[in-house]
């Protein structure tokens, strides 16, 4: 069964600090760091809940970064990345002003085992260094 991939707790807290307040289907409890509610039919956002932080999916955050902050995250597969084994790397691009600028000093030259791991690294980089 395929399930949604939510951002980790650390990224969820960073998102709240950076003004992310979109409706999500899951929440983390601020004291425990555990997802306490998730599922279809529930809608949460950061401004509604005092002791919780919303837990968006990776794709939701990537869309928010693209549409609100003009950072495009591209996760690429390289079949020779990790000593002949497949690995993922990230390209970050700025997409405002009708041009794209590759951010070479971001998270390039690092290879990740999974698409999700690469996505989280890029999201964290954007939140800590660009926004």
Mean pLDDT: 81
Q: Order the strands across the largest sheet as they lie in space.
A: 2-1-3
Low-confidence stretches: 101-107
Q: Which sequence of SSEs, written as H and E, runs from N to C?
A: HEEEHEEEH
User: What is the helix tally?
Assistant: 3
Strand count, sense and closure of the main sheet?
Answer: 3 strands, antiparallel
Distance between the termini: 35 Å
Task: Give the overall silhouette.
Answer: globular
Helical content, roughly? Answer: 25-40%
Report Rg.
Answer: 16 Å
Number of domains: 2
Structure summary:
The protein has 131 residues and is an alpha+beta fold. It has two domains: 9-56, no CATH class; 62-130, no CATH class. Helix content is 28%, strand content 27%.
Write the layout of secondary structure elements.
Blueprint: H1 9-17, E1 26-29, E2 35-38, E3 52-54, H2 58-69, E4 71-82, E5 85-94, E6 101-102, H3 115-130
Looking at this protein, list some descriptive labels:
single chain, 131 residues, alpha+beta, three-stranded antiparallel beta sheet, 6 strands
């Amino acid at each position: 069964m395929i399930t949604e991939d939510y951002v980790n707790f650390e990224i969820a807290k960073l998102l709240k600090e950076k003004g992310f307040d979109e409706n999500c289907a899951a929440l983390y409890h601020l004291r425990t760091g555990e997802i306490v509610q998730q599922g279809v039919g529930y809608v949460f956002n950061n401004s509604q809940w005092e002791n919780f932080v919303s837990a968006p999916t990776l794709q939701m955050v990537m869309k928010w970064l693209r549409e609100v902050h003009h950072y495009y995250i591209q996760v690429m597969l390289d079949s020779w990345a990790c000593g002949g084994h497949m690995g993922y790397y990230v390209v970050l691009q700025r997409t405002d002003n009708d041009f794209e600028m590759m951010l070479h000093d971001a998270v390039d030259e690092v290879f990740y085992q999974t698409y999700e791991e690469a996505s989280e690294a890029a999201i964290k980089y954007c939140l800590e260094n660009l926004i």
